[in-house]
Amino acid sequence: MTFLILTTIALFVIAIVRLMNVYDLSAEIRGGRTDDRATEGESRNMAWLWALFVVWLLGFLAWQFFEYKDDLLPRAASAHGPAIDNLFNTTMVIITLVFALTHIVLAYQIVKNYFRNGRKATYFAHSNKLELIWTVVPAAVLTGLIVYGLTVWDDVIYPKAEDPIVVELYSKQFDWTARYAGKDKVLGKSDYRKIDAGNDLGLLNVPEANDDIIVKGEMHLVKDKPVLFKFRSRDVIHSAYLPHFRVQMNTVPGMETAFEFTPTITTEEMRKETGNEKFNYVILCNKICGTSHYNMQMDVIVETQEEYDKWMREQQTWRQKKATASAESIIQ
Amino acid sequence: MEYTHQPEAGQVQGHAHASSHEFDDEHHHAETFWSKYVFSQDHKMISKQFLVTAVIMGVLGMLMSVIFRLQLAWPGQSFPILETILGKWGKDGILDPNFYLALVTIHGTIMVFFVLTGGLSGTFSNLLIPFQIGARDMASGFLNMLSYWFFFASCLVMFLSLFIEAGPASGGWTVYPPLSALPQAMSGSGLGMTMWLISMALFIASSLLGSLNYIVTILNLRTKGMSMTRMPLTIWAFLVTAILGVLSFPVLFAAALLLIFDRSFGTSFYLSDIYIGGMALERNGGSPILYEHLFWFLGHPEVYIVLLPALGLTSEVIATNARKPIFGYRAMVASLMAIAFLSIIVWGHHMFISGMNPFLGSVFVFTTLLVAIPSAVKVFNYITTLWKGNIHFTPAMMYAIGMVSFFISGGVTGIILGDSALDINVHDTYFVVGHFHLVMGSAAIFGMFAGVYHWFPRMYGRMMNKKLGYAHFWLTFISAYGVFFPMHFLGLAGVPRRYYTNTEFPLFDNLVDINVLVTSFAILAAVAQAIFLFNFFYSIFKGQKSPQNPWHSNTLEWTAPVEHIHGNWPGAIPEVHRWAYDYSKPGYEEDYVLQTVPLRPDEKDEGH
Asked: What is the number of domains present in chain A?
């Protein structure tokens, strides 16, 4: 099979070489060499192909916008989400216009000015006025975008809630662990040297840590209640990416990073809205972290305060977990 | 090899003619095969060496992309050919997840460094700097030769790393520690990563030797009359690029050196609080963020080290084939410098969500979005150059305009990524992949193709086939958009980059079609490159013989004989009397005026 493919390719190449020879020879017979530069006919053909191409390009873009509109920026499910989406849409409209207009002008210039025999180009080397225009106009537009963008950034990135749910999101190859601060609302301290089989997070044996609640696989949040994520990493850099909430932050070994946001739509509501029974908010890893980077996930359930409190009561504290584990080891 | 560089010393403006008589044949000794084709110190030969090496590396990088695109479009599907090519990494015809990461890593490294930095700058700076400024050769032929051989060694080490037991480096082309620092973290972080770092160190040495040589040559060896403002924009672009390289590559070297220390000598510049492989790491107190800062301090200027030469080549090709002076020469030079300056102070936009202080993020938003201003100036100046032109659509011109198109479409999405608030949601998604493949990948490679088609006669004394050139252009152009446009939409839907498969997340189930579309275009693009390869190698040996000035161009390289000779010009070095862009100048019969033609008494020179 491989031999067959290779032979076919070789024969194909030889055939083209022969064809090229014939082409060059016949060109010589027809009266000297072919024109090195593009001829008038070639330039006209290429110019019109350019125009056609720009039509295709704009059509292709429009088709994609239409085809994928349901998947683009899934509905924002956080308080700050709409602000980011508005900024995005504003920017997108501006850049799509710039893209389309420059390409239309480009195609127009190409079709208007392709090479014709006996025509001479206009000698036009510079114009301070024109250059001033296309320095100042982009500068003005960008100033607007910078101011707008930075306003949103300042609103989004600095934690400011009075009494948020504090959750530590802990990453390692290749899963996530969430730790809630417990009754005292304080996350107990940890030390990576204390990590062992029964103590995944390296928690110290202190009261602040003992009432913490540790969960894997899925975590729960409350609708309209701010949550302050504190991120830690055990081994390499990961990135906690929650696309529906417009949240992303790297998790870095040796330092704590943070992101605060407020979920605004419960999982249940989102399931109804999307008509997808199995819909779940997810945390993805979005910084290359090793072999199973593509499958490092955790579900996020957003629910009402009552549902959340009920779920919380069912969870064991860190102290209870330790007790269960040691009881089990004694039995064994 | 044998001719002395003495005459060059006197070649500084004003002495060119006096010294040229030293340049006759009795100074030449017989060239051996080795001194002519292998350890050559002639800029023309070195340029060809760079180009052919880059073409080979480019084919390698492209084939890698086809392999991982197959996996992305049809995850889990068996392609028996993969086992034939990859052996244990393609067992049963299914790509191994570790090797998938290795492929994306080496694909990125090859394309960014070996093809678009070494290949682009190495080929065209070497070819055009001496030719276009009217010099016999580079300031130091020996350093120039070393620059190529360091580059070759670097390519070789990277290539060999593909064949080692545990696989090549696989932490992404940015090789962030701790992933790249600890062999326990992934299989590619062992010997493969060491070889990556060695290869990179060799590459940096090559780049610095080359850049210093380019700068010295441009500043000192211009022929009589070639003032800075009469230089073609290609030379300005190469000069600014070389300066940028000299400023930023040493920082990458520092980053790599510290990483080597962390990997091999027990330091912890980048390591802190790590528990891995069932053990707590003794070493402590470093920060991976430090690496990110050092890496991107090169990494961002690198984007422009790739792009500026492409812009320079494009400027020259567009002016020549539009038969018009490049519009706003001074603005073009100023915007080159502005882009280069800004590129040094925007590295933090790769780190908005790295955990860096958000205020610092704001500063980088500001500097980053400013880059759009000089970029816009360049685009509008290109378009105005076409206005009322008489455009010859040679294949080179097609590529040059294609480059402008990519520069626009890839550039505008940069406004989204450079805005920190928007970056939160698209950071490290396919939106980024689409963006930089258009603005840096496709734009730069199109600039390079424009250069190859345009200066091929100058390099090999023969013409490339025009018809094949057109076919190559259209297939490549359409498929590049077909590959990279849809990627933006994948990114907006939240698909992260460097995922072996998207099937683990039901969220992405609707997007399978897009990946099939992208892969189909990628395969089409790969097939199209076969046309180029054929045209390139066929024309080297069998192409039509080239006339001296096939494009009716103004610049000095076309005043030298087609035949390559030592010292470029027999007899005296040409003297320059005008800038490079007197196309269709009123008062002249022809629509071009060579730079060597003296000004008429009443004539004004745009360059001075």
From this structure: 1
